[in-house]
Amino acid sequence: MIQGEKLQKMLARGGFGSRREIERMIEQGLVQLNGRTAKLGDRAVDTDKIQVRGHTVKTTRLTQQPTQVLYYHKPDGLVCSRSDEQDRDTIFSQLPPIRNGRWISIGRLDINTSGLLLITNNGELANRMMHPSYELEREYAVRIFGDVTEDILTTLRQGVMLDDGEAKFNFVSRLPSDEDAQNQWYRVILKEGRYREVRRLWESQGVQVSRLMRIRYGEFSLPANLRRGQTREFDWKDVNRLLKSVDLPAEIRPDQRPKTEVKPVRAKTPSTTPRPVSTRRRR
What is the DSSP string of 162-208? Predict the structure, then answer.
C-alpha cells in the first residue's frame, strides 16, 4: 500500500507554489526529504523532515487547512498573475492575509475585464473548478460596439473556429438598451475559459467588445452590493456547496473542528500607490 502524500501536493498546500512550480523546484534539487535531495515521485508523511531552499518546513504549515473561498470583485487594470513582467498591479496584492497557505485564483480575467473572481486556498477545488470536464458555466455581461445581426448571434451559438479550436456561446441574448446606441449590451454564457475567449468570439464577427464583466461562475453570482476591489468570504455552507459541485467531500462545521492556537496574521504593508479598498465581510 502506498503511504504518504506526493511531495509537490504537500508543499503546494503550504503555499510554496503551484504543483508545477514545486515540481520544477524538485527537479532543480531545491527540496530535501529526510536529508537527501528529493526527486519527482517522492511521497512524505507528517513526521518526515522536509526542507525547501535549505530551510526546514514546519509541520504546521503543511497541515490540511479548512477550505476558504472568497468572492472578489476584480476591477479593471489588475492582472491575475502573481508577478508581472511589466510590474503591473496584481489581484494578489489586494487580497486579505492568509495563514498556512496561499490564495489561488479560480480562473483568470484579463487586465481589461472586471467582475467575479472566486479565490480559494484549496488547490484541488481550484483545479476541478477550472477543468473542462465539469462544464461549469461562466456568465458575462458584454458591451459590443458595432452592428450585431441575428445571423451573427446564430453563428456564435453554433460555433466559430478560432486559432485554438472551435468555440461557441452556450447562450447569448441582447439585454435591454437604447435601440439607436452604437454600443449594445449582451448576456453570454459559455462552459470553458480559454484565453480571451469571449472577446475573440465577438471579434471573429467583425465587432468589438468595449466592456466585459463576469457576473457568474458556476452556481455563484457576483453579489450585487460587492463593490469593485472588495472581497467577501463564503460561509461554511456555501463552501460545502461549492465542494459538492465538483465531487469533493464536505468539511465539518467550524464549531466542531479541533481547536488550534491562532496567532494574529500581520497585514501587508500598504502600498503608497492608491488602490481599491479590500474588506472582508461575512454573509
Answer: ETTEEE--SEEEEPS--TT-SEEEEEEEES---TTHHHHHHHTTT-E
Q: In this prediction, what percent of the chain has a pLDDT beyond 70?
A: 90
pLDDT(94) > 80? yes
Contacting residues for 164 by C-beta, under 8 A, at least 6 apart = 194, 195
Residue 164 a catalytic site member = no
Q: Which triple of cell numbers denotes residue 264?
A: 494574529
Exposure of 212 by Cβ count < 10 A (0-12 exposed, 13-18 middle, 19+ buried)? Answer: buried
The dihedral sign for the CA sequence 187, 114, 127, 65: negative
pTM for this one?
Answer: 0.78
Among 46, 84, 110, 235, the active-site one is: 110
CA 219/CA 241 separation, integer angstroms = 9
Distance in angstroms (rounded) separating the CA atoms of residues 99 and 53 = 21
Q: pLDDT tens-digit profile of 114-140?
A: 999 999 998 889 888 988 899 999 999
DSSP annotation of 156 reads H
Burial of 276 (0-12, 13-18, 19+ CB in 10 A): middle
H/E stretch holding 6 reads strand 5-6
At 43-91, the pLDDT tens digits run 999 889 999 999 999 887 788 789 999 999 999 999 998 888 888 999 9
* All three cell numbers of 59: 509541520
Q: Assess contact for 257 and 279: CB atoms under 8 A.
A: no
The secondary structure of 211-257 as a DSSP string is EEEEEEETTEEPPTT--TT-EEEPPHHHHHHHHHHTT------GGGS
Tell how far CA 247 is from the center of its chain: 18
Contact between residue 123 and residue 104 where contact means Cβ atoms under 8 Å apart? yes
> According to the model, what pLDDT value does residue 171 have?
97
